[in-house]
Every structure is written in structure tokens, then in C-alpha cells.
Design goal:
Elements (H helix, E strand, L loop, with lengths): L1 H28 L2 E8 L8 H14 L4 E8 L8 H13 L7 E5 L3 H4 L12 H4 L9 E7 L1 E5 H6 L8 H17 L6 E3 L6 H13 L15 H17 L2 H5 L2 H10 L2 E6 L3 H4 L6 E4 L11 E10 L5 H14 L2 H9 L14 H4 L5 H5 L3 E3 L8 H16 L5 H12 L13 H19 L6 H4 L7 H20 L6 H28 L6 H8 L1 H19 L5 E5 L7 E5 L3 H27 L7 H23 L8 H33 L2 H18 L11 E2 L4 E2 L15 H11 L1
Parallel strand pairs: 1-2, 1-3, 6-7, 9-10
Antiparallel strand pairs: 3-9, 4-9, 5-7, 5-8, 11-12, 13-14
Length: 738
């Protein structure tokens, strides 16, 4: 009995053990493992390890089946530079199936990374995100800003206070250095400057210019403003009077030594806890001075954390939970109290509990932060390098402030042709030319209705002359779209004006040439009877083709000119749009060739010989100018003014040549042709029109035979339509016998 009981008890215990093991593995198998990746210049992984370990401990204590695995890239296991590591992170994000779920990264690369990061505002409450005043694609892990280290021992010795302005700093440092030299302390540095490399140097320059703004609320000054000029002048004065070129170039280790040894009056450096907790520290930190008291400026740098945009659905909610925990006020406060991070929640530094446990709370509360201009360019590293290179030409060379600042500004500035004289006279001159030309064209329409000049415009009906003039005006209006900032709408309007304008000019000419065709056939008869349908049909084709092209909008392309002035042009990125543009080009070329073919066929038609010569001249000009315009889409002049002048000149040439050759020259012909010859030409045109129109007055009603509506068409020469032969032979026959 006892043996059976013990055996039964052992069986129960075994079952319980097995059950616990199964439950453990079931729980473990349900655990979500999130892979995080980070890069650090040191080998400790701080603060990333604190974030990951902190969350894992929190998850374990609260029975949350989420665990983060940190993949840390350090200089020991990863030999690439910071810039190359940033590119590697970007390549990982661009993959459709990245093996990493959470990314820690330098916040200067947010504009490169945000297209691949999850929009946190969808799942995280707005008030939570607003604690940071940051973007919606990531949250700050740790921040740091520059501070002014003031040597309290020396300041107290000479009865000086911590400077509030750069002028105070200069005077104080200059006085103390000179006094210390009398005591044989020749190694004392007035101010270090801290311009060691392109990244740190950029931050120092940028925040110095920011500190010269007019008031605390003022934005970052325009780079070419007097404020920026004054800032550079004063910075050079500091270098020359209380520092040196060599000291300005020295970096982190040198600045650390200055603070450790107390061998500088003022040092600009980062508020590292390792320094601030030193036993023999004789420095007090504060915000950097400004040009005016109460105005300061410290650039913000640091690291963010974001979630991979294509994260699997089963991991998404877990990743959101980790970000919520990372960025929670409670967790951030715990890291601040441990002096591990500077939190992005600046309101924490108003917390009495925080300020009673950390030093320099006033410094954090009074910060006037400026962020690096991460939205100014796609490649911030390249921009910072350019910025510092130009700056060095000034601070260590002989370049003027405005020259250097203009070069820096030109790197990202987009130049446009404006009407205001501040930007030059080119835009104003062309606007005046176009406007005067438009006034001349519009006023000349009245000639069509003055009896004295009616005979000079018999070649076409009045409404078709109006159509041609409207086409010329539309082409001329393109010139206005080149003024001011380039936009997608302007690109589309420019394209429509060119297409419709060209159609309005060319279609009436083609219609007239068909009406004058030397042989009667079913096609010419139909067109003559349905001339309005003919015009509408081809205009609709133009509108349809234009509409298909505009389904995908034009793109604005930046033309970046090395050491020059950048500008923008209209471009096309979509493949189908490019194909449609090719189709439209072929269509317009077809109309031009049809015009030239019809002119060739009717070349010997003495009734309209002068008009034929004018049409062929106009067509060749249109052909040339149209293809020159197309050529400029592929060959871009790297000078925005020259590019504008060439485009405007071609547009004006196209409009002016059409106006003069087709319209205005008819007022000159009577002057250069004898009166008898002119009257003969007019009679021939009237006779020619009489063969096709019932009334030369309205040019619109064609002869018909009673109710059967048979069209009475009288070709000038009778070519039998039954004649067979090659098309080439027919064209030659038409040419010589028309």
C-alpha cells in the first residue's frame, strides 16, 4: 500500500514537473524578440545598453513577453567611419525585409531615414509625442548641447562674473590673460573656440551665428544678413585677441585637458558627466553667451530611436510598446537621475526631485536650442563639410565675410529670375518686352475690321486669323511662366500653352492648303464641308495628348551648380510620361511635315504664291525653334540667368516670327509691291476663294446644289482621280501643275 502510494505520488510530481516545463516553453515560444541595431564611437554601448537592459528588466518584472536583442556596432567589430555607418543603416532600412526592427541612429540623418521609419503618431498618443517637441518618426534617446565652462577660480580672483555676452567674455578673458602673463602664467588660454573638424566646427559656427540674433524669439538669421556678418567679424576678433589659429583647430582631448588642468579662462565644450563629477573641477557651466544679454544659442545633437516601417504585424505592437517605455517620463527621469543621459523632455529639469539630485539644472532649463539644419539638404554631412571649408577660408584667410557667407548660402539657395530690380534687371526687361509685344498684337487685331486693310487678309477668314493670333499670344504667354519660382503648375501651364498655341497657328494654315488642294477627292470634299469639325478634331487630339501627359505631374529638378548659383527646371520622371512626350513630339512633327508637303504640292499656285512662301518660312522657323526648345531639356546651361535668357529668347522669337511672317508682313507688302501688281494679286486671291466659297465676305458658306447638298468644288486643274501611279509621281505632278 505504502509503495503504491509513493509510486502514485511520484507520478503526480513528475506530471507537475512536465506541466511546468511545458508551460515554460509555451511562454518562451510566445516571446517576441525585437532586434535592435546601434552604432557607437566608444565601445561601451552607453546609453543603448541602459535602454535595452532597462526595458528587458521591466518586461520580465511585468510578465511582458517581449525581449530586445541589441546588435551593437563599435570600432572593435566594425571598421567603417560614422558617415559610412550611416549609409549602412540606410541600406538596411531600404530593404523590404530587414532583420532589424528597432534602429538607434544619429539624429542628423533623420531626413535620410524617415521614409523608412514607422509614423509613431498613429499608435502613440499625441501628448506623449509632444513632450519632446520632435518629429513623428522617432524619439530622442539622448541629447547633448554645448556649454560654456567658466574658470571660477580665476573669475573670483579678479572679481569677474560669468559673462552674459560675447563682448563681456572677450573683455574678461583678455584682462585675465594679460594679468596672468605678468605673473609668468604664459600658458593660459582665453577661449578655445572648438573648431576641430567639419562636424564639430559646423556646430560651433552655426550656434555662434544663432547667438547673434536680435532677440530670444528671433529665428536663425539669414546667412547673408548683417547679423551673420557681424557674428563672423566678432568670432575672428575672439580668435585674434584671446585665442589663436592653432587653439581653434584643437578638439576633444585638448578641451578636456584645459578643463582638467584649469588652464583656460573659458572653454566651450559638452557637459559630460565624467567631467562635471570631478573632485577638483574649478569650472562652472552655463549657457553660451550671446551678442545681447538674454540671448544665447546651443546646437542640439544626439541620438534617436525609430521603428522599421515594414516591420511584421506580429512585432509591430511590441515595438510600439518598447518606444512608449523608452520615451516615458518615468523611465527618462530614472536615466537622468543616474546621470546616464540628457533627456529630450526638458520639462524634467523643472522637477525639484531631479534638480536636487543633479548639478547645473539651471543650465538645462535656460537652454536656447538650435538644431542642425537637417531639412536644408539631402546630404547634411556634405553640407557641413562645405560650410566649414568656406568658413576656414575666412577665419584663417583673407576672404571677406559677405563673400564667404554668399558662397555658403549659394550651396542650398535656389535662384529664380524675378521682376524686382533687387535681383537684377533681366526679369523686368523681358517682362516689358513681352508686355509691349502683347499690346502690339492685340491692338493689331483691329486691322481685320478696317475696310482699308481687309483685302490684305483675304487669304483666311477673320475667325481663322483670330485663331492664329490667339495661338501667337498663347506662345508668348509662356514667357511669363519663366518668371519667379518654378512650380509643377507652371510647368504644366507652359507645356499646354506651347501645344495649344502651336495648334492654333498651324491648323488654319493646313485647312486652307487642303481647301486649295489641286484635286477633288472624298477627303478634301469632306474637310471643306466640315472645316469646323476638322479644326475641333485636331485641337481635341492636342488636348487629349496633353491631358494624358498631365496624368503624372511634372517634377521639379534642382540644377546644382558647383561654386555657382543653383536653379530649378521642369523635368519628367515617369516613364509613361516620357513616352507620351515622345508621341506628342512625333504628332507635332507630323503636322509640320504635312504643312510642308501641302506647300510643296501647291508651290506653283500663282494665286497664293506669296502666302505659300510665308507659310513655308513660318513652318521652318517653328520647326527649328521647337526642336531648340526640346534640346534645352537635355542640354542645360549651368547659369540660371543665361538659361532664362535663352529660353525667353526662343519663345519670343517663335511668337514674333509667326506674327511678322503670317500677319504683320501683309501691311508691308503693299509698300514694297507696285499698286498694279498688288491689285492683280488681290484679284487672284478673291478668284481663288470664289472657287471654294459661296461668298468671299464670310468665307464660311460653301456652294451647294439644292436639297441634295452636293458640294460644288472647283479645283484649279482637273486631275482624274482614276489615274493610278506612285504617290511620289502624283506629288510631283501636283507640284508642277497646280
Amino acid at each position: 500500500m505504502i509503495r503504491d502510494y509513493n509510486r502514485s505520488e511520484n507520478t503526480v510530481n513528475l506530471k507537475i514537473l512536465i506541466l511546468f516545463v511545458l508551460l515554460y516553453f509555451i511562454g518562451y515560444s510566445n516571446e517576441v524578440v525585437l532586434n535592435a541595431i546601434a552604432y557607437t564611437v566608444d565601445n561601451t554601448g552607453s546609453p543603448y545598453n541602459f535602454y535595452v537592459d532597462g526595458f528587458n528588466q521591466y518586461a520580465e518584472e511585468n510578465n511582458i513577453n517581449i525581449r530586445i536583442k541589441l546588435n551593437l556596432l563599435t570600432q572593435k567589430n566594425f571598421t567603417l567611419s560614422i558617415e559610412n555607418s550611416a549609409t549602412m543603416i540606410e541600406s538596411l532600412l531600404m530593404k523590404k525585409n530587414s532583420k532589424y526592427d528597432i534602429f538607434f541612429y544619429d539624429n542628423s540623418y533623420i531626413y535620410r531615414y524617415y521614409p523608412y521609419l514607422l509614423d509613431l503618431s498613429i499608435d502613440i498618443p499625441e501628448d506623449h509625442i509632444n513632450m519632446y517637441d520632435m518629429d513623428i518618426f522617432s524619439q530622442p534617446v539622448t541629447l547633448t548641447t554645448t556649454a560654456l565652462y567658466s574658470n571660477k577660480v580665476l573669475l573670483d580672483k579678479y572679481g569677474k562674473s560669468i559673462p552674459k555676452t560675447w563682448d563681456d567674455l572677450l573683455k574678461t578673458a583678455k584682462e585675465i590673460v594679460e594679468n596672468e602673463k605678468t605673473l609668468y602664467n604664459n600658458e593660459l588660454v582665453g577661449y578655445n573656440g572648438y573648431f576641430p573638424d567639419y562636424e564639430q566646427g559646423f556646430c560651433s559656427i552655426y550656434e555662434f551665428i544663432y547667438s547673434f540674433r536680435e532677440s530670444k524669439e528671433s529665428p536663425f538669421p539669414e546667412l547673408t544678413s548683417q547679423t551673420a556678418i557681424d557674428a563672423l567679424k566678432f568670432l575672428k576678433k575672439i580668435k585674434e585677441e584671446i585665442s589663436s589659429e592653432e587653439i581653434f583647430m584643437l578638439g576633444l582631448e585638448y578641451s578636456d585637458q584645459l578643463i582638467t588642468n584649469g588652464n583656460a579662462v573659458f572653454v566651450k565644450f559638452y557637459p559630460f558627466n565624467s567631467i562635471l563629477q570631478g573632485d577638483k573641477l574649478q569650472y562652472e557651466i552655463s549657457g553660451l553667451p550671446g551678442n545681447k544679454e538674454g540671448v544665447s544659442g546651443s546646437i542640439l545633437v544626439g541620438y534617436n530611436v525609430g521603428i522599421y516601417n515594414n516591420i511584421s504585424e506580429d512585432k509591430r505592437s511590441s515595438a510600439i510598446e518598447t518606444i512608449k517605455y523608452f520615451s516615458s517620463k518615468e523611465f527618462q527621469k530614472s536615466l537622468v537621475l543616474k546621470k546616464i543621459i540628457i533627456s529630450g523632455i526638458l520639462s524634467l529639469y523643472e522637477d525639484e526631485d531631479v534638480c536636487s539630485n543633479i548639478n547645473n539644472c539651471e543650465y538645462y532649463k535656460d537652454l536656447q536650442i538650435i538644431r542642425r539644419p537637417i531639412g536644408k539638404t539631402d546630404d547634411l554631412s556634405k553640407y557641413m563639410e562645405m560650410f566649414v571649408n568656406y568658413f576656414n577660408e575666412y577665419i584663417y584667410g583673407d576672404e571677406s565675410e559677405i563673400s564667404i557667407l554668399t558662397k555658403i548660402d549659394d550651396y542650398t539657395k535656389i535662384y529664380n529670375i524675378e521682376v524686382n530690380t533687387k535681383e537684377g534687371l533681366v526679369g523686368l526687361i523681358f517682362v516689358i518686352i513681352i508686355s509691349l509685344f502683347l499690346m502690339i498684337i492685340v491692338s493689331s487685331i483691329s486691322l481685320l475690321y478696317i475696310k482699308k486693310y481687309e483685302d490684305y487678309f483675304l487669304f483666311l477668314p477673320k475667325h481663322q486669323w483670330l485663331m492664329i493670333i490667339m495661338g501667337i499670344i498663347l506662345i508668348l504667354l509662356i514667357g511669363y511662366t519663366n518668371i519667379g519660382k518654378v512650380s509643377v503648375l507652371k510647368c504644366e501651364i507652359r507645356y499646354i500653352l506651347l501645344g495649344v498655341g502651336y495648334s492654333f497657328i498651324n491648323l488654319p494654315l493646313i485647312l486652307k492648303l487642303i481647301i486649295s488642294f489641286p484635286e477633288k477627292n472624298k477627303y478634301t470634299v469632306w474637310i471643306v464641308k466640315n472645316k469646323y469639325l476638322f479644326l475641333i478634331f485636331f485641337i481635341l487630339i492636342e488636348v487629349l495628348l496633353d491631358g494624358l501627359i498631365l496624368i503624372k505631374p511634372f517634377a521639379i529638378e534642382d540644377v546644382m551648380v558647383n561654386k555657382g548659383k543653383n536653379f530649378q527646371i521642369c523635368g519628367v520622371e515617369d516613364l509613361m510620361t516620357k513616352i507620351m512626350l515622345l508621341v506628342v513630339m512625333i504628332y507635332r512633327l507630323f503636322l509640320m511635315l504635312i504643312t510642308l508637303l501641302l506647300v510643296f504640292i501647291e508651290w506653283n499656285n500663282k494665286d497664293i504664291s506669296i502666302d505659300l512662301k510665308l507659310i513655308v518660312t513660318c513652318t521652318y522657323i517653328n520647326l527649328i525653334t521647337y526642336f531648340v526648345l526640346l534640346l534645352f531639356n537635355f542640354i542645360i546651361i549651368n547659369n540660371y540667368i543665361s538659361n532664362f535668357i535663352m529660353n525667353e529668347s526662343i519663345i519670343i522669337l517663335m511668337a514674333f516670327s509667326n506674327y511678322v511672317v503670317l500677319y504683320a508682313i501683309r501691311l508691308i507688302i503693299p509698300i514694297i509691291i507696285k499698286k498694279d501688281e498688288l491689285e492683280e494679286i488681290i484679284d487672284k486671291i478673291k478668284c481663288s476663294n470664289g472657287n471654294s466659297f459661296k461668298s468671299s465676305e464670310n468665307h464660311d458658306s460653301y456652294q451647294s446644289n439644292n436639297s441634295d447638298n452636293n458640294y460644288s468644288y472647283k479645283p484649279r486643274n482637273s486631275f482624274s482621280s482614276s489615274k493610278r501611279g506612285s504617290i511620289y509621281s502624283k506629288i510631283i505632278n501636283y507640284h508642277y501643275n497646280s
